[in-house]
Automatic annotation (TrEMBL):
Residues 99-271 form the D-isomer specific 2-hydroxyacid dehydrogenase NAD-binding domain. Pfam families: 2-Hacid_dh, 2-Hacid_dh_C. It comes from Novosphingobium aerophilum. This is 2-hydroxyacid dehydrogenase. The keyword Transcription does not apply. Belongs to the D-isomer specific 2-hydroxyacid dehydrogenase family.
Length: 302
């Protein structure tokens, strides 16, 4: 978690750092009953009933991230525990990254750079790449970040469409009622929707096949939304052209089969990972806890 969280909390609260404890179990036995708040990172593993059972005085979980599929919301609700996340402050950063990954994947920028560094340029130019021109881009998820991606892509002159569970009256882009219908209408799919059981493997072999042989998948959502084995097959067999991924099924593990694919551009979950934006997220985590304990109202409850 960004250092801004501890810096803002330390002067006001007694702060424990569970990940620094040699024996977390003994720590929870000794201090669990007095813990009233948790600040958690999306990468720290699941936060649910097992942990809540050991923290009977817990009032609030402040999640460092807008996606909160790491927190069992039903278990929190059952105990009256408030959960907060960090919406809004990272939309532009993640949208920048999504568009960068889209361009890098289609124009093969990492491959071109590797070609130059390998000294191959003298032997002839880098092979011609596919193009963004004429593409129809489907946004799977059109929330805060999806809309920030769409605003950018309007400047690129591509057609846009989207799928969410509900059609948005104020949005002019065509809406498709299922991920499959969206994929059938597009050749480029950008996943930017929440993870968790409701969206698990929402991008499966059929959705990938519907994108077609020029198809490109960009996943900046969560690894769980894609059937990763089906994606590897589709990339291997040319069912789709290429994929750009920021997230994976079992982070930080990335399967060797993916690493071996020349038509995959792979990033280590860096969507919001700038100093500027991680600091803004950290301040919002701390401000949620401060608002809860000082005024009884968190700023951004989920
Ligand atoms: P929002 O809540 O603003 O938007 C979520 C969108 O997903 C909405 O359009 C919603 O539409 C749609 N959606 C939600 N559930 C479903 C479903 N079951 N089926 C289809 N569509 C669904 O979230 P954000 O835009 O702020 O963030 C989206 C996600 O991006 C986060 O939850 C997180 O997982 C991921 N993320 C990844 C980052 C990275 O580093 N790579 C950084 C930040 C976020 P509707 O309600 O109509 O279904």
């Amino acid at each position: 978690m960004h250092g801004s969280v501890a810096a803002a909390l330390e002067p006001r609260f007694t702060l424990h750092r569970l990940w620094q404890e040699d024996d977390p179990d003994a720590f929870l036995r000794a201090h669990g009953p007095s813990i009233r708040a948790l600040a958690v990172s999306t990468l720290a593993g699941p936060v649910g009933a097992d942990l809540f059972d050991r923290l009977p005085a817990l009032e609030i979980v402040a999640n460092f991230g807008v996606g909160y599929d790491n927190v069992d919301i039903a278990a929190a609700r059952a105990r009256g525990i408030v959960v907060t996340n960090t919406p809004g402050v990272l939309d532009e950063e993640v949208a920048d990254l999504a568009v960068a990954l889209l361009l890098a994947t289609i124009r093969q920028l990492p491959q071109a750079e590797r070609f130059l560094r390998a000294g191959l340029w003298r032997d002839g130019g880098f092979p011609l790449s596919p193009t963004l021109r004429g593409r129809r881009v489907g946004l799977l998820g059109l929330g805060g970040i999806g809309k920030a991606i769409a605003r950018r892509l309007e400047g690129f002159g591509v057609d846009l469409a989207y799928h969410g569970r509900t059609r948005q009256a104020a949005v002019a882009y065509p809406w498709y009622p299922t991920p499959l219908a969206l994929a059938e209408a597009c050749d480029t799919l950008i996943a930017i929707l929440p993870g968790g059981p409701a969206t698990r493997h929402i991008i499966d072999a059929a959705v990938l096949a519907a994108l077609g042989p020029q198809g490109v998948l960009i996943n900046v959502a969560r690894g769980s939304v894609v059937d990763q084995d089906a994606l590897i097959d589709a990339l291997r067999q040319g069912t789709i052209l290429a994929a750009g991924l920021d997230v994976y099924a079992a982070e930080p593990e990335v399967p060797a089969e993916l690493l071996a694919l020349p038509n995959a551009v792979l990033l280590p979950h860096v969507g919001s990972a700038s100093e500027h934006t991680r600091s803004a997220m950290g301040h919002l985590v701390a401000d949620n806890l401060i608002a809860w304990f000082e005024r009884g109202h968190p700023l951004t409850p989920v």
